[in-house]
UniProtKB/TrEMBL annotation:
InterPro entries: NiFe-Hase_large (IPR029014), NiFe/NiFeSe_hydrgnase_LSU (IPR050867). This is Hydrogenase formation protein. Transmembrane segments: none annotated. Residues 1-23 are annotated as: Disordered. Gene3D superfamilies: Cytochrome-c3 Hydrogenase, chain B. It comes from the Bacteria.
Length: 367
């Protein structure tokens, strides 16, 4: 039988001290698949390669190409930001309703997934008018099926008591989401996750120039560092969040995904996510998009060709690259873990875009 090539890869977690706690088989395909291509091919190609967050990758690739071609002066079209809002809200909905019950220990409740049957933000929405209509209906759906009170009120109470409110709500509400979070609170809150947030504000203040230089010089399999370390990124690092939730344990990181969804759903959600692009050097473009799992960055270098510009190099920095790095925050948190269930909770809190498995120190593997 001929060997198969894994286009996606997976992450292996090995909790405990004294050994590497995290390895990844995610292949570095972007450079090989994009080199020599016409730049206009990149958005569809990369959107197809990264299927789970395809819309964000397609958007980031298009903006990076535009910047490399010298089209970085105009701001991204409002329609692009609106579509990103819809796609990100849908990603968070699916993550919470389908992935949490399936992946979190002791959470096989199907009620959350079943609640999506009548969710207005369905997967087939493409028309901008239909998207806006669905977004307008989303707060009422969230109140009825997940929250038990208006989304804006939920967010206001959380702002008043960032750490205590969600715990109080989960204990008193009868919704399927409250039941799940109530069961996870104790074990997840005990899992410390020191935070090294990837700051978009710092990147915009000159950091993208430095990052582009690293991407140009480093081999494709080497992840650049930021401020001397491997940072973490997620809904807890939104640029426009004036009072971000503390990300000091797995519970708060889980909670930040729900908070992100609510911020996208309420009025003003059209301004919640940041995106942008610049030309760090001639024929180079770098673009960034805040998406469900955190900050996504695309970088492209073009070269001249008699038939028109071609891609000389292309790099993608996805949130999973930072969060599931062998020297990242999650890897350090896993060193203090002795139970498989806790390793799983940490993995879900950091939300990989690929499958993960857990191998406990005694050698027994659990997929």
């Amino acid at each position: 039988m001929s060997p198969t090539f894994d286009l996606v890869g997976q992450v292996q977690l090995r909790p405990g001290p004294g050994h590497p706690t995290l390895t990844s088989t995610r292949p570095a395909l972007v450079g090989r698949l994009t080199q020599g291509r016409r730049p206009e091919e990149l958005p569809l190609l990369l959107g197809s390669l990264f299927t789970l967050c395809g819309h964000a990758h397609q958007l980031a690739a298009q903006m990076a190409v535009d910047a490399a071609l010298g089209r970085a002066t105009a701001p991204p079209a409002p329609a692009a930001a609106a579509a990103l809002r819809v796609a990100t809200a849908r990603d968070q909905l699916v993550r919470i309703a389908h992935d949490w019950p399936r992946l979190l220990p002791g959470a096989p409740d199907e009620a959350l997934a079943q609640s999506l049957v009548h969710c207005p933000l369905g997967p087939a929405l493409r028309d901008p008018v239909a998207q806006q209509s669905a977004l307008a209906a989303l707060p009422a759906w969230l109140e009825k099926h997940w929250l038990g009170l208006p989304a804006a009120e939920w967010l206001a109470r959380q702002e008043q008591a960032p750490v205590e409110w969600a715990t109080h709500w989960a204990r008193g509400s009868t919704t399927a989401l409250a039941r799940l979070l109530r069961a996870q609170h104790g074990p997840a809150a005990r899992l410390a996750t020191p935070s090294r947030p990837l700051s978009l504000s710092s990147l915009e203040a000159g950091g993208f120039q430095e990052l582009a230089q690293q991407l140009e010089q480093l081999p494709a399999h080497v992840l650049p560092q930021w401020q001397g370390a491997v940072p973490d990124t997620g809904p807890w690092t939104r640029r426009r969040d004036a009072s971000p939730l503390p990300a000091h344990n797995a519970w708060m990181r889980l909670l930040s995904r729900l908070t992100d969804l609510l911020q996208l759903a309420v009025p003003g959600g059209e301004d919640w996510l940041s995106l942008g692009r610049l030309q760090p050097a001639p024929s180079q473009g770098i673009a960034w998009v805040e998406m469900a799992r955190g900050l996504l960055i695309h970088w492209v270098q073009l070269s001249d060709d008699p038939a028109g510009p071609r891609v000389a190099a292309c790099r993608v920095l996805a949130p999973t690259d930072w969060n599931f790095h062998p020297h990242g925050v999650l890897a350090h948190a896993l060193a203090g873990v002795t139970h498989e269930d806790d390793a799983r909770r940490l993995a879900v809190a950091f939300d990989p875009c690929v499958a993960f498995s857990v191998e406990m120190p005694q050698g027994e593997t659990h997929a």
